[in-house]
Amino acid sequence: MASTVYCIDFRASFKESLTAKLVRLVKKTGLSDVVAKRDLAAVKLHFGEKGSTAFIRPVFVGSVVSALKEQGARPFLVDTNTLYAGTRSDTPSHLETAVKNGFAYSVVEAPLVIADGLRGLADVTVEIGGKHFKSAYIGTDIHHADSLVCLSHLKGHELSGFGGTLKNIGMGCASRRGKLAMHSTVSPKVTSKKCVSCGECKKHCPADAISFNENKKAVIDEKKCIGCGECIVVCAVGAVQIRWNQSVPVFLEGMMEYAKAVIQEKKGKALYVNFINNISPMCDCVNHSDAPIVRDIGIAASLDPVALDQASVDLVNREAAFAGSCLKTHTAAGEDKFKGLYPEVDWEIQLDYAEKLGLGKRNYSLKMLETLGLKD
């Protein structure tokens, strides 16, 4: 049997605003079945790096918070600290970035919590018995929450092809040592001919794994490298690239095992939402957001995270790419936009493996909710 994915477009009317339509979406998906009165409800999202602009709008988050309060729950917004050096790598910086990006209490009416503590060291060990990980390290306050509403921004991603719900859960709920464990098999390489010796990669390397040789070209120490991918993102000339080998599938599968560690603890107590708009080519962790690759499509929700990610990717790939975006291939309607962005990343690995782990089904039924008042 196919899993149900509900979806709304961005139409609105005098009878129903877009925020009201979003609330109707999460209620239709089953919010009352997932969240109970007095639940400490974790609203998992990405607050956006400083300089990023494609993350979920705080006004949307606030409307979901209101719906949770209507259920009698006590919601809080939550994320974990980053492994790479940036504006969200420790709790004070992370909270400051979140507030500057619009997630102040006066807007969202919920407190902000960084689940893995001051420096990303507060976690709970969850036994999963996976192929790659026997146990996973999950941010303490996410693990101990009574229920979970995961709000994810769909976008391209330089390591996983795309980022949606499963990445938001698997990577986004892990503590620092969990993120380190997932990334440690991915080691980038430097193309010396392209390197301009700017030093940005070294400055942003959290493991101090980058030095410069006698020719003033960057060199990565593979023994020190933790595979976070930060050097790939910050290199303005494309000199640092992933060393494509078996480690990338391992990374994707490991991330799904971490998703399992979160999902198995929230069985029947989790709802997932993907915002399929401002579909930027790179992660919201970078300090900028490039032009969207396709038009704003809508917001989708499901109790099945695998079906939700599959449906979201399919909705993007049905579209023709925007002229002037960074996409140069796979631009026609029906072509794989994420393959066009990252041709050597097989993003389907994560969904296949998630299905094998019992996290959900790739087979789905998409049900569109109409806008109230448009057809009256």
Structure description:
The chain has 376 residues and is an alpha/beta fold. It is 31% helix and 19% strand. It has 14 helices and 16 strands. The strands form five sheets. It has an eight-stranded mixed sheet with strand order 4-3-2-7-14-15-1-16, sandwiched between helices. The chain has a two-stranded antiparallel ribbon with strand order 5-6. Strands 8-9 form a two-stranded antiparallel sheet. A hairpin with a 7-residue loop joins strand 5 and strand 6. The longest helix is centred in the last third of the chain and has 17 residues, at 247-263. The chain is globular. The model has no long low-confidence stretch (mean pLDDT 94).
Q: Which characteristics define this entry?
A:
single chain, 376 residues, alpha/beta, 8-stranded mixed sheet, 16 strands, 31% helix, globular
Strand content: 15-25%
The H-and-E topology, N to C, reads as EHHEHEHHEEEHEEEHHEHEEHEHEEHHHE
Oligomer: single chain
Shape estimate: globular
List the helices and strands and how they pair.
Blueprint: E1 3-8, H1 18-29, H2 31-34, E2 40-44, H3 58-70, E3 74-79, H4 91-100, H5 105-108, E4 112-114, E5 123-127, E6 135-139, H6 140-143, E7 147-153, E8 155-157, E9 161-163, H7 165-170, H8 176-183, E10 188-190, H9 200-204, E11 210-212, E12 218-220, H10 230-234, E13 240-242, H11 247-263, E14 270-276, E15 298-302, H12 305-317, H13 337-341, H14 348-356, E16 364-368
Helix pairs in contact: 1-3, 11-14
